Amino acid sequence: MSICLQKKTVFAGRSFGRDVNVQWPKRRRLALIFAGIVGMASAMLPLHVDAQKTERAKVIGAKLMCMCGCGQILTACNHINCPSSAPMIKEVDQHVSAGEADDLIVQDFIQEYGEKVLSAPPSTGFNSIAWYIPGAAFALGLGIVLVIIRMWRQRDVHRLASASAAPAPAATLATEVRSVQLERARQQADQETEE
Fold first, then answer.
1. pLDDT score at 147
2. Does the residue 136 lie in any domain?
3. Which residues contact 113 (CB under 8 A, 6 or more apart)?
4. Taking CA 49 as the corner, what is the angle to CA 43 and CA 54, rounded to the nearest 5 degrees?
5. Which of 60, 62, 109, 174 is the most exposed place for a label (fewest CB within 10 A)?
6. pTM of the prediction?
């Protein structure tokens, strides 16, 4: 294999060029190809191992909260230059690369930041109340709504029952005058329509 290079020389504003042939020995070419293959293979191996550690770190990071006050999960904190997420993620990566168990890593963060670092409250002890409160609040609200509806229905039933059982109001002079006037108007209308 020969490589053809062109060498140019500039003198007094004019360029002069000539071709230079470079011969590569066969062993040197094979050594260069082999070195390239080994270099690419060695570069790909650590990336695969780091990808596995990073995936495990993401799973652990999803169990933790960012401590910057944003209220987001550690791996989902999207603040630019967040003072908490980058060091915490780096610490998780260090624990993962050291080969520590997931539970031990989480316990280390709990000791450092307290239980507020957990993205979900533990379901033991007093914290178990956090798991039952939403269901209990829903049941209590539903019960209150049903009691109020029942009270409204009973009030309407009592009002209708008392209205139908009440005696008819006594006729007053004004209602008698209206009924007499109404009867006269009907008789007059009947007479006019018969003619």
1. 95
2. yes
3. 67
4. 120
5. 174
6. 0.42
